[in-house]
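Example 3.
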Amino acid sequence: MTDRRPAVQELTVISGKGGTGKTSIAASLAVLAERPVIVDCDVDAADLHLVLSPQVKERHEFKSGHEAVIRGKDCIGCGLCVTHCRFDAVKMVEKTPGEATFYVDPVACEGCGVCVRFCPVQAIDFPERLCGEWMVSETRCGPMVHAKLGVAAENSGKLVSTVRREARRIAEEQHRSLVIIDGPPGIGCPVIASVTGASQVLVVTEPTVSGEHDLERVLSLARHFSIPATVCVNKWDINPAMAERIEGAASRAGAHVAGRIRYDRAVTSAQLQELAVVETAGPAAADIRHIWHQLKLQE
Amino acid sequence: MTIAVASGKGGTGKTTVAVNLARVLDQPVQLFDCDVEEPNVHLFLKGTQQGEDVVSIPVPVVDEKLCDACGECSRFCEYHALVSFGTKPLFFPEMCHGCGGCTKVCPRKAISEQGHRIGLVETMQAGDITLVTGRLDVGVAMAPPLIRAVKARRQGGLTAILDAPPGTSCPVIATLRDTDAVVLVTEPTPFGLNDLKLAVDMVRELRIPFGVVVNRVGVGDERVHAFCREQSIPILLEIPDDRRIAEAYSRGELVVEALPEYRSQFMQLWKSITTGLVEKTEVTHANL
């Protein structure tokens, strides 16, 4: 067996619950790291660019999958497509009284192609679907790969995989050893795409019943994919007893507890100035620096 | 009437708005936790569990005796859930959307379907509130089929409030489809504003009437308010940045119970949604 340790390390910041401070912390880590490549994998509500002010160097269209489009003039109104569609995406409209025609709701269509295949008069087109775009940019901390998913578009997982692949390529090419990934909330498809194969996840949680509940699920996800997890409790002083309980549960679940971050209004003021928290003064900035040193990253 | 509570950004207070709104209603209400990846509504209600049901999606089973490795199913599958290299197909259930296409295209009728578990739907009764929660199994990628199973519990005639997942992608769309109005919860920060704009584009694309709740008013700046003014988007409720709310939330308490002075504001919110958003839209439609 060859040494399977990746030459480039990938640290993914996730949270389970949204709004716990992932992006503020990821931006700070990007500032603290020596020569990182930065990735925003929260492709449907990306915010990291608001702090790191990227200068876009390259833009790429993101096409993924197909969508069914019925040509109204060729549709004979047999309705077979409706019976085949499992996603309730084909809708009927009355062309003239008593004469039906059909159209596909692009938002509901999952691009499976069943209606296309079984239309008896081949009246359904199946063009590639433009789902968004991804960009390579320069920031004050290093190169950044980010994306914008189209309005109501699908396939966020594939877009996440695309931006991660590009970031790894840049890291290898420029001999940068760390990729910092700002992940999406939840535990579903874009999160799975953000964490699979990562060297470590940093889970940012908050001392609330929701934070506690969601942490448990996100840690099981990390275990499911065998990724070492580090946990930090943001705004811990909102509920100190809960912070302690969460840290205990995290340790018992096998995660490394890296520290706590105080509730600090400087976090929002940094955001208003388009700065990372550690680029401003305040107790939260000191707490984040401490957590950065606790992350067991190989130099 | 079905109302969804959504937001681009996570952690802005969707669950707080949905559950407190349901609590102040003076009528039986169905509350749906459609944030199936991280369902939290149940943490704020005390009630009795009514039961849980396993939700599955139909996935293919290949009859090895009938399959002649023609590869038609794997060529057809848009999701690469069936892969064949001149061999009998390998199946990757986590990629399968359950479209049923492979069973239909197989020339030897060698593919049938069986259920593949993706999660649970749980029901709880808490006073007038019937809570229906979707809980996605850890490691399952696709939330929309479970969200559809949660929403299938809607009973006509009853008011339904849906707590949506954060973001603007497929799980949110699955939640918002066929709702009468959407409440977008945001906070007055640059992140809040950026994600509100994305959410507004989304609900406009879906053509659903909507309004905004601004949470933690006082923490940031005026840009969210200015945006809503410019875009003629109604601000339905402003919740101040009150540390007592954050603390009550952290303990799993309802704002309207821990801090009863907020009760009338949530009642007013309901009135603004029903008369300001839903009825107004119905009148506009009637005039067309």
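Chain B touches chain A through 59 residues (CB under 8 Å). Chain B has a mean pLDDT of 94.
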